[in-house]
Each structure stands twice: as structure tokens, then as C-alpha cells.
Recover the amino acids of this structure.
């Protein structure tokens, strides 16, 4: 049996989980998330824990067992504490600012990049060289952070670009001098 899928999901106080057929709805202090369970995986609620169960030991069911448990656990974590990704901008003249419902980024191109902030995501720029992407859906937060990073990935020679906080950029030596 899957070690991940077998682990119970603790439901903290203030979080309400509703299972109706294949639909799972999690409501908490931060908001509400819903998801359709894949395959024949079932979710059972016992007191203040959730148990994910699979019908058989076929390869497909085993694969979905741990995945479903992780997805539901992330839903519970999202509505209680939320998720956040920090990005750093490195480079002379590179900066970002939130203007209304858009993130305006200057990354050394001939034009500014205007990124519309998606629904359910909050973007803050505490400093011009920092971007904080937060929200209750961890998958969406990670996707938006990856999109912002893709506008100018860190390059290996000078290290300029958008990177995750704590990301290590492997630097290369430039041309060898004669």
C-alpha cells in the first residue's frame, strides 16, 4: 500500500469538508476549494480526519491513491494557511511593481511586461526587486510564479533574471583571457 495514500489527513478546527459523490469541497478561514476525485478513489471522513481509499491494487489505482491524498491535503492546507512563493529579481534596472490588477515588470527588454494577475492570486512587491505570489490554491500559485520566472530566467554568466528565493544559479566562467 502507498505510504503517502495510507496516511490520514488531519482536518483542523474551522475547516469544513463536504464529500458529495466524486466532488470534494473544502471550506476554511482563507476561502473555499473544490475538486473532483479521479478514478475510483473514495474519500471517507472519520471524526476530524479524512481517509483516502482505493478499490484494488491495480497499477492505476495505486498511482492515484497517493496523488489524491496529496491533492486533498494541499486543499486543507490552502484554506487554513495558504501558499506563497517568493521571487527575486537580479539585474541592473530590473524591477517590478503592482499597478491595479496587473504586475508591471521591467526586465531589460525594449518594453515593459504587463502580466494580468489571475483570479484567486495575490501578488505583492515589498521592494522593487521582490515579488511575493500567494493564494489558497498551491498549484495555481506555483504556476503563476513559474510564468513570471519564465519572462527572464536566470542566466549562467552574470546571474541576471528572475529566480525563486534561495534558488542557486550555477555560474559559468566567461571567455578565457589570453
Amino acid at each position: 500500500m502507498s505510504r503517502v495514500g495510507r496516511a490520514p489527513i488531519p482536518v483542523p478546527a474551522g475547516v469544513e469538508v463536504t464529500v458529495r459523490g466524486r466532488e470534494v469541497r473544502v471550506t476554511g478561514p482563507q476561502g473555499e476549494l473544490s475538486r473532483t476525485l479521479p478514478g475510483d478513489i473514495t474519500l471517507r471522513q472519520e471524526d476530524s480526519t479524512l481517509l483516502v481509499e482505493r478499490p484494488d491494487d491495480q497499477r492505476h489505482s495505486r498511482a492515484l491513491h497517493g496523488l489524491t491524498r496529496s491533492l486533498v491535503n494541499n486543499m486543507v492546507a490552502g484554506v487554513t494557511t495558504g501558499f506563497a512563493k517568493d521571487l527575486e529579481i537580479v539585474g541592473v534596472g530590473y524591477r517590478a511593481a503592482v499597478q491595479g490588477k496587473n504586475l508591471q515588470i521591467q526586465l531589460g527588454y525594449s518594453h515593459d511586461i504587463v502580466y494580468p494577475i489571475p483570479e484567486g492570486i495575490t501578488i505583492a512587491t515589498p521592494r522593487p526587486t521582490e515579488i511575493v505570489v500567494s493564494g489558497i490554491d498551491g498549484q495555481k500559485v506555483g504556476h503563476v510564479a513559474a510564468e513570471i520566472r519564465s519572462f527572464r530566467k536566470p542566466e549562467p554568466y552574470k546571474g541576471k533574471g528572475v529566480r525563486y528565493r534561495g534558488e542557486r544559479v550555477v555560474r559559468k566562467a566567461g571567455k578565457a583571457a589570453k
Notes: The chain is about 20% helix and 35% strand. The longest strand covers residues 83-90. The helical segments are 3-6, 59-80, 138-150.
